[in-house]
## 1
Amino acid sequence: MALFPAYSASTKNTEKESASAENTKEEVSRPAWLNIESFPVNLADIPLPSEPQHVHDECGSSTEVPDVEVLSVDTKKNKHHKKKDKLKDYKRVKTVNESVQKEFFEDKNSVRGYLTVKTLTRPLVPQYYTKFRIMENISYQFNKKRKTKRYFMQVLEPNEETADLENCKKSTDSDNNWQNFHLEEELSKRTADFNKTLTEEPNNIDIWLEYVKFQDVVQQFEQTYRRGGSAKSLRVTTERKISILDKALTDNPQNERLLQERFCNAERLYPADTLAQQLLQMVEKSPGSIVLWRAYIRVTQGSLSLCNTTAVMKLYEKGMKKFHQLRRGAPSVTVFPMESGILDLLLECGLYLRQAGLWEQLWTLLRIYLELNLAQPDSDLFKSSISVPEDLITDLEETVLNSQLPLPELWYRIEKLREAAHWLPWSSEVECEDPQRLVFVDDVSDMLHPITSPKLSIRLALIVMTLLKIPCLPWRHTTMLSIGLHQVPSFLDGVEVLLTMYYPQHILLLNDKTFLQGAINLVYGPQYLTSSWPGQEHYLEFVTKVFHSSAICLKEPARSAMFIWWLRFERFLVILDNIEHCKLPPQRKKKIKSSIKEFLKRDENRNNGLFYVEYALFEVAINQEESACKVLTTAVAAQGAAPVISIACNQKKGELCQLYRTLCEILLHSRKETDCDEKKTETKVLAVLAALVLGTPVTNWQSSVISTSEREVASNKFRHITTELLLEVSSELADGTEHLLPDFIVDWIACYGWWLLLTQSVWEAGVIFEEALQKYPSAKSPSTTPVLKSTCQREGIFESYVGLLYYYSKNNPGVYTVLQDVLHRGLQEFPNNLHLLSIIANIETTVGCTGSSWWKLTKYFQESNCLLAQIFQIFYMRYQGGLLQIATQQSYEFLNAGGPVVPDPSVKNRLSSLYNRLLNDSLTKRCSMLWRLYLRFLAEHRQDTSYHSIFYRAVEECPWVKVLYTEAVKLLPAELPQLQDLLIEKELRIHVTPDELDILRQDPSEVI
């Protein structure tokens, strides 16, 4: 017996096995040496490596498995001796399944759906650590690299001829240094292009400003890839911008755009006193630059440490005096810009006095300007004695003092009472207890300068009424440019301008009165919107007298423009009262209509058709459409039956066309919703438009039917006259009356658009408006250039175009896309046009649910840096938040019977982000209205800790705004002494001093 039986058995059968090596698989699979006793395990079913595998089930059936390729293992031994604790290099056996390999493909597209496959999450997923022993028991563990997302970070396009696999792997490296190199190369190339272009064109202001803006891209690159501090990086970037602008100013020393940009950047870099010294040197070199004077005064006015009324008023006085000196002996070409500079400073000085609460000084300054430049010598037109009776104020104060309220609340209420009642200087012979009410002409006479240019008279009247809180109606973008408010970011301190969104232009009215909900709470005295504070009726009488006195002193067409403004203001008050945004006294409502009728009966006003247009629109405001149509028909008949185009006078031509257009729009917007009435209304409108173009009488327009031949003749005449009108585009400067008086070309194109809408289609009407917009130049010119008459006409065409599309889209929602596109284009050119913004508000409040998505709405204002557009976003978010709150409450009532109501924080977070962005912007951070809205937002959401810090931040940005201090007393009553000290330190108007309040609180019997 052999020592190894298995081996002996195998040797005996060697020849037999070699002879039958090619027999059947059953014989090969059962070698003899496996059947011995020393190997009892039955391994007969285990296949050899050279044969295919079979899987046997219990029934004996088999399923073939594809061939498996076994890769060779590297068995090369290390020649050196083994070292302790050293890892060996080895290669794992990799099995490749051919059937699976056929179905496998490399996923090269970034399909995000594959990333949603559920995998193990922590702590179930295993963790692996790779350790290398370095010294004794000290080990080093590799930190994981930054985990990248799936797929490559760069697109790879290797050269197939020269690149091999190893080079491809190197080029796919996603290291930041590779991307850094390419970005830095692009930035260097871009900078070189700017330098080359500016060397060739040093007077190209747009390229200079683009180069300055490009520095923000460089800063972002440095902050991302160079890892510099944000504050340090911002400072370096600002210094770089200033050096570029200084170089640009050497080639363009008097360019206003470059000066404005330099001031904005210098304000971020230097402290107020250092910047004031720099600007003083620049003003001495260029005393005729209004931009430098504005910047110099705003540095002192906007600094918490430098601001006080005496210092600021001296700067305004110094600036006006310098412009007056430069005007003396200068040619007529130089006189106009110097006098415009005086009016610019007058506007900003008036805004400062109004926001500081110094109304007595404000009216004294405005009155002497009106008496010197508009009224006749020794005229008493602007001397007013309208004031609230002192007995009424005393009774109200006693009621407040007897209410036993806390001291801060007592001071707040008495201050508001006197603020609403005292806006005129003390004129009685009785001794005045308040020394700040004693204002004399000598106190402001150093700022008085004559305005000799006739074209600036209407602008002076516009400035005076704007400072008295009377907004221009309608409020357009070109209106702000003409007045000069586009250069003053702090002009918006009340809601009077925002409420003009409810002013119906072309019979389009903002339907939802809750859009500006809570706006009336932002009113501060003196005011004319609410009767909850005294002085409303007296202030309205005062404003009406100023309207009439100014109009009497002006010549045509400025005289008609001022009276039209007054008529529109009276109608505007009635509309606000109807939608509960204004509370007029009952006597005032009855008095308005009778005063308008008396005005129309005067001999000098009987033949002015524009006054009858405003009276007819007033009848529409009080729901008297039939009476309005009769007034307009009578006015048109009085003008005669001649064609409009045959009238030589442009003012008369525009007057008659405005009559026809207003009559058509009243008929269209007052029609009923039934089909029969709609057809009758369209027939009436066509008859009126045919009378306009053919020159036929309009006495029987209600029953006349236009024949087919008359329609063809009218259409041909409309087309022919419109083509001739668009041949010549005026390049004249606007004189200021364009914002109040109608324009013949705009009204004619609007009438032609209505004609095409009713006879053909809305698309044909749109073609006419598009052709007109192509003829008139775009308004994307810099804001510092003078306003052209063609720019005002282009804005009017946009308004008419939007009004027609909105009227048609009420019954045809498919036009909303076109309407939104036209609105977007119009707001890009005229972002401060409140009529266009009101159309957006109408769309958003009528589409249902909570309106459009936020990104769809903000696309209107992405490129806009205008203040009113940004304020509109805030009120829209407030409105949307109210709707979401109602929807949340209703869903809770219907769907969930238990549990608390979970509010939606999305609107709150979005509003907070919007406030933070606007209040960090250099343009909008000086707007007191934004700070007031933000502080109210914090108070509504009970963020008391934030309120304290945000209030003092608001005071740092706007230290001269009195209303910020008075409203803070409501939520910070413990800081009343500090707030009163600030008011006294800044020399702002304070009606009740702390000592006087203590005396008022004492018992009269205790007072000696």
Note: The mean pLDDT is 81.
## 2
Amino acid sequence: MLVAERVTRALRPSRLLACFSILFAVRAECEGGSDVAASASAGAAIDDDALLRAVLAAPRPLAAGLASDEEDSREDGAPGAAWGEDPLLGGAPVFSLAHAANASARCRRQSRVFLSELRRHRLWALQMWDAGAKLPSGVLRGNANQLGDFDECVGVDSGALRAWGGERVRGRYCLAEVDVSLAAPAAAAAPAPAPRREAAEAVRAALDMVLAYRFIRSELRDPGHFVPKFTSINWALCVPAACSEGDAQAGVGEQLRRLGAGSGLQLTAAVERGLCYGPAPGPGPGPAPGRSPAAAAAIGLYVALALVTATATLRDRDGKPTPASAGAAERAVMAFSLRRNWAALVATLGAGGDGDIPCIHGVRALFSLSLYVAHKVITLALMPYVNRVELTQAANEPLSSMLRASIVYTDSFLMLSGVLIAYNLSREMSRKGSVKWMKRYVARYVRLTPALVALVLFYGYVFEHLGQGPQWGRVVQQNADICKRNMWRNVLYIQNFFPFEDMCATHTHQLALDMQLSLLAPPLVTLLSKSPIGGAAVLLAINVLSAALRYVSTRDNDLSLVIYHGMPMAQLYKTANMAYEIALYRATPYVMGIALGYYMSKIGKNVYIPKAALAGGWAAAGALAYYALLSRWAEARLDFEYSAAEAAVYAGWSPVAWALALGWLIFACFTGYGGYLNTFLSIKPLVIFSRISYAVYLTQFAVFFYNVGVTRTSEQFTILKGIDPVEFIVVIALSVVMTLIFDFPMQEIKNILLTSDTRSKKSVEQRKNDFNKTL
């Protein structure tokens, strides 16, 4: 029978972290440290019972936390029945901090109470034991993350125990993270025999399966609040409330060191701050949850805004624009009318309009959906799927390159922004002869910032009070703590000047890039208008400088714009900090968008393109898009080996190729050569989704992280998890609300603040066009 089959059958013993014991048994076969290994070396057949005996003889995982029967009898007076003979527990392991040397005295005392009462089969002690993680089946399919029973653990309450001087033991749930790796083999004088080498390969293969083939390679010290620590195993512990995160980590660490000694495995563990839940470990009752003045203030702002919206909606009986005779305050209040804003949201796209390029709506909507799925993969990797191996296998498909290279979608948003702002600025200069630069900057800030402020306030002060679960402290609380410290950076759009791992609402780095690059638009458009050749030379110089920076930075620092299989988490954050969030690094699509938008405004739609040139343009665009999206498909393979030289070439040319391909699509549709594609990109559902795309971008991670944080049990992974229908509907609903309450009202308020004629009124169509101009 194959070694892997024996390993799979040997997983039946109900022992905590017994998957490690499986590896010990096969490792023993590798090292010749047991009768089973000796038989293997001699070429003898190994029956399943022999391997099972080897597994059962391996060190009991975490059982070293239990004292001997005599010692426990001396401490609590309980009869010294052996755990393996207990008819109820049936030899199942018990995790305890009773004898953890580095745990606090009160934690050790309550742990001894737990052991004593468990021996007596007290219900609360059985619940505490039952709530901790146990070894399931399917570990070799990636089912290594075990969340135990969160609610059962935090609900444990012994009441006052008279036999223990009135001691009251309550449950505290802690989520430990365990890193497992093979120890470096000792130098040998002669090569190992073939059977031993085969057994060593079996150990490696088994560990790879336990860790779901290491989709992303992580370490305990890596931050896990945004990008998942994929190869760290989550294991639930239920301990007395007197035990802190430090106590739990000390106890687990001690026992794993004993477990790993001489096994050929390196086992390290951590219990991060915020990953223990339940009553505070101190002797007092602890602070009352949910009492946060800052949270109350943030909610007060939301309520005030809701009251203004309700007032405006009730007063807006006909949905018509505010009379021209109304004052600025009246117009500002009525800008929040839901009736009026809903009409703007669902309005049919006009045939033209100032700055309205119809196909851009569809392009923005489709790339927003693509980016949504790419972002969803991040949270899929956080989930404790019972078949996590299948998640990695799905990610190994060649088409997954369209998600691994998701930077092209954010590049698309930058290009669309550049096209629209240059197109409208050029038209404005043609009409007025000049551009009010400051007006443009203020208008953009006024439009984008209120919704962003609402989001970071929610992240920092409200989100943490809305739920609880095994990973809540990691994906919600840690993000809340970062936002409390750093949200001011978001409001100033300078969050990308700081490390990616310290960024509030990490995904909003795109807004900072867009805001910073938008500073280039007015001077560049002005230069193009006054000196077309000089302006073109400056645009070319910026592109060359940006491409050179991407190439050199990627080559010299081992960066990768594509998330390849097995990419170390440290390299991913390094890429984000040195490439992804740097404005000059990302300038190519924006600057090329400025060039396209300017020349589109000058050329107009009446352009003749010969059929041969048209066919060649579409063919070239297809080839360039393939290069940017799919050419790196081999990076999804399990055996992919990173090459800095290849990554540098891709980093240098990919944004250029993608911008050219997307630019051709926009230009062809704009000039009437888009055919059915242009018609599709202009259909009403895509137009409506485009109008809420900014809010979709802001709200999606809050919904993702909430669902990860409250997840209490393992699920079955399927490819359809990429877009969960209920989750998607929630994101859409929240995005519509944010658009109606923040996005559209800011259009009218912007005009009140910035237009010289405060008595002019806006129709629904005019406000829709303003929405397009400020994108």
Note: DSSP finds 31 helices and seven strands in the chain.
